[in-house]
Amino acid sequence: MEPTRVSELIVNQTWDGQPIDADERARVTLEQSREGLRVEVHASFHGDPPPPNPPGSTDRLWEYEVVELFLLGTEQQYLELELGPHGHYLALRLRGPRNLEESGLALEYQARLKGDRWTGRAQLPSSYLPASYLASGPTAANAYAIHGQGSRRRYLAAHPVPGPHPDFHRLGCFRPLVWKELNPDPEDG
User: Fold this and answer.
1) Residue range 22-29: average pLDDT?
2) In terms of C-beta density within 10 A (0-12 exposed, 13-18 middle, 19 or more buried), how is residue 16 classed?
3) Is 21 among the domain residues?
4) d(Cα 12, Cα 19) in Å, to the nearest integer?
5) Which residues are 145's β-sheet partners?
6) How many domains are contained in the chain?
7) Is 118 part of any domain?
8) Residue 186 CB contacts under 8 Å (≥ 6 apart), including other chains
9) Is the dihedral of CA 75, 106, 110, 168 positive or negative?
């Protein structure tokens, strides 16, 4: 059995790099295996209303409470994954900032809301990932959380994207992922 690789991103600041309180933070865990990538979110629930459509693939999910993960490959290929607390998700493949190649990618996604916290778990098949990812993993990544409405809207990041306004497609602000290998138990093989 092949080892599994794990990495983690912590959303712990505003989009422009200001610290946030612990109760606003989100954690995104990635677990890579031959079958693809499992993404798990642990975040605070801020009580925003859900999108009006049933859970599943949802266009414009960034307009609601959401945690986002961007995985960058080579040649500016990247995957944008958005996960919401009510079971909605959005998966997009892009090449170059905001240059959409494919949208509406179907995922296995489950979300669980419990009090003021929520968790989400998505399974991405290898075919959704940039080709360079399969060989060596993404070259860089960033994670974000968005919540609130109107003037109370908050844009948070694992790695800041400074500028005049929040722009999560600033690929130069992504950072390399740090992977740890989890070796399988020899007795399981």
Assistant:
1) 96
2) middle
3) yes
4) 6
5) 67, 156
6) 1
7) yes
8) none
9) positive
Give the per-residue SS3 of 66-120.
EEEEEEECCCCEEEEEEECCCCEEEEEEEECCCCEEECCCCCEEEEEEECCEEEE
Q: Are 114 and 79 a contacting pair, CB within 8 Å?
A: no
The residues pairing with 32 across neighbouring beta strands, listed in sequence order, are 5, 37
Q: Is position 189 within any domain?
A: no
CATH of the domain at 77: 2.60.40.1190
Give the number of other CB atoms < 10 A from CB of residue 74: 13
The 10s digit of each residue's pLDDT in 96-143 is 999 999 998 999 999 999 999 999 999 998 888 766 665 556 678 999
- For residues 156 and 118, what is the distance between their CA atoms, to the nearest angstrom? 17
Task: Residue 155: give the domain boundaries.
Answer: 4-184
